Write a sequence for this structure.
């Protein structure tokens, strides 16, 4: 991933965030991992299996190397929204529903309320992720949030087409962008 990020940096300066589990960071070594993030100009990391209360396992290394640690708010975070938001940097990843990542057809019914609660305590942008896979879903989420995060749908396209996936991913992303632009 670090080598790929370095290659990407040769053609774009679009901010890059990496989503990984905590174990690869520990196996790599937190200081070495975040040193490589900085070298590859990775702006942020998302660590979905590291609860907010355990952020200090990686935050000092993020801070040392200038990498943002993206906070996550889940549908079960209601009592903790203000506390989590008070330490958020970069953006807040609003989890659309409970469970693991992957394409979904329905989302938590309280997403609007979660984003509204966040807006009352922070001006850090909020982006909704976990399961967003269609232009319609992205448009719906961005009608009340600052962004929609799409990951698993792109991974599925890559898994289906392998090394030949670039035009398929490009077409998918273009359709998402067109739908979002048309909704503005």
């Amino acid at each position: 991933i670090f080598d790929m990020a370095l290659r990407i940096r040769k053609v774009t300066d679009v901010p890059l965030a990496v989503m990984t589990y905590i174990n690869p960071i520990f196996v790599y070594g937190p200081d070495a991992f975040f040193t490589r993030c900085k070298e590859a100009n990775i702006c942020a990391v998302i660590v979905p299996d590291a609860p907010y209360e355990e952020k200090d396992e990686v935050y000092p290394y993020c801070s040392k190397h200038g990498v943002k640690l993206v906070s996550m708010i889940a549908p079960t975070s209601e009592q903790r929204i203000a506390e989590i938001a008070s330490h958020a940097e970069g953006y807040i990843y609003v989890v659309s529903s409970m469970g693991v990542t992957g394409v979904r057809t329905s989302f938590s019914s309280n997403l609007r309320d979660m984003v509204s609660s966040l807006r009352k305590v922070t001006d850090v942008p909020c982006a909704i992720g976990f399961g967003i896979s269609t232009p319609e879903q992205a448009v719906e989420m961005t009608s009340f949030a600052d962004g929609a995060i799409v990951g698993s749908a792109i991974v599925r396209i890559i898994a289906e087409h392998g090394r030949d996936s670039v035009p398929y991913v490009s077409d998918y992303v273009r359709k998402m962008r067109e739908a979002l632009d048309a909704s503005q």
Remarks:
- The longest strand covers residues 92-95.
- The two ends are 34 Å apart (CA to CA).
